[in-house]
Amino acid sequence: MNIMGIVLAAGQGKRMKSKLYKVLHKVCGKPMVGHVVHVLEQLQTRRTVVVVGHGAEAVKSYLGDRVEYAMQEQQLGTGHAVLQAKDLLANEDGLTVLLYGDTPLVTSEAVQEMIRVHQEKGAAATVMTAIFDNPFGLGRIIRDENGRVARIVEQKDCTPEEREIKEINSGMYCFDNRKLFEALSQVKNDNSQQEYYLTDVIGILVNQNDIVEAYCTPDAIETLGVNDRVALAEAEQQMRARINRGHMVNGVTLIDPANTYIEADVTIGADTIVYPGSVLKGNTVIGEDGVIGPNADIADSTLGCGVQVKHSVLTEAEVGDDTSIGPYAYLRPGAKLGANVKIGDFVEIKNATLADDVKVSHLSYIGDAVVGRNVNFGCGAITVNYDGFNKQLTEVEDDAFIGSNVNLIAPVKIGKGAYVVAGSTITRDVEEGDMAIARERQVNKPGYADKLRSKFAAKKQASKAGK
Ligand code: UD1
Ligand code: CA
Prior knowledge:
By secondary structure, the protein is of the alpha/beta class. Helices cover 22% and strands 29% of the residues. The chain has 10 helices and 39 strands. The mean pLDDT is 97. Uridine-diphosphate-N-acetylglucosamine binds next to strand 1, helix 3 and strand 10.
């Protein structure tokens, strides 16, 4: 079957009071229009047209070539918006699913149900409806004496009796494609908002004796249209609960789902435990048997199996199996850790590759470095990677030992198994198997501590007397 999709995304969304165009506001890390397009991708539509207007360039640069675009220069209503797709789609035979870009909670399952009803009944149009206790602001489904859909009336055009109707228009439909565009050309703007309403297509089809069906979804929240930030927060909460439920069903333990924030595209392996306060973002992938959190803030990172992350921030990092991170570590873009690595408290890693079994246990900065296997960095050891002009590389080969508080002034290379004595400032390469020490030799002055004390006491006395 030839399925097409149309997504309306041209509105500015005045009620959002935002510089950002409405459909680009994110729900669980993904722009609303991205959720809607994803639903159509799951349905494997052959063509999908997104109608853009306000913020067209921003919407296009986000969606890229996942879809085709139609431009609506002036926002004259939802019907007018669909009409802009006419040049692209009018000659297609098949079924067109129409979704609004501001309705991010819809699932492909619900749309599939609507399509099933549509095909079973041989309908020209099927509208997804829902029952709301408080339908204020939404289009109402008017049914005739036989209970069949007759038309849709917008809130602002409702009579007092119509306002009492609790069955609403979700803004999601499927149409026989040719009938949609034929009927659209008959839509007029003689209503309170002087807009061309897509919803009028329903009445037009009914009047020409076409079959129009309604699929009333049992899960009304899926139809939530986001017009303001209150609804945006509601959508976020609903989506989050859905995402979290999905992970739990897949075998992930969430200690407190209400306090766990996982964005839409994150994947997590079975038997991983996520503690509260964790925020998992972007394209993060976490393997099995991990222990994540409390308070892990992980974005666009890939973690192997058995990884532990406590009270730490990871951005664009790669972490091998059984590696442990934190508490209070910071992995920045380009941090690539092997297996069984230990990154301890107050350690920052940036653009550095650390092979298996490396230990950086406390208070270190490692930037622009390549570190071999089984290297140990003592407390406070750092790479000095930046001279104010250029970033320079530090190389440390397998089994080397870097003592506490060592400064490795890049560019510099520490050979295999070399030993760098604590407190050294290393400016020259150290060969394989060598020991390097680079610090002042210590001088002890016997009894001088007491001398020093009396000297200072006398000075203090003198300055008091002087006052
Ligand atoms: C619309 C429906 C209403 C339904 C509600 C569900 C119409 C006339 N009304 O009302 O029956 O209950 O959705 O949420 O369809 N858009 C354009 N170009 C335009 C106008 C709108 O692209 O000229 C886009 C918007 O960006 C938005 C979508 O269409 O994504 C819906 O528009 P909106 O103004 O929010 O319609 P509602 O008043 O919510
Ligand atoms: Ca809306």
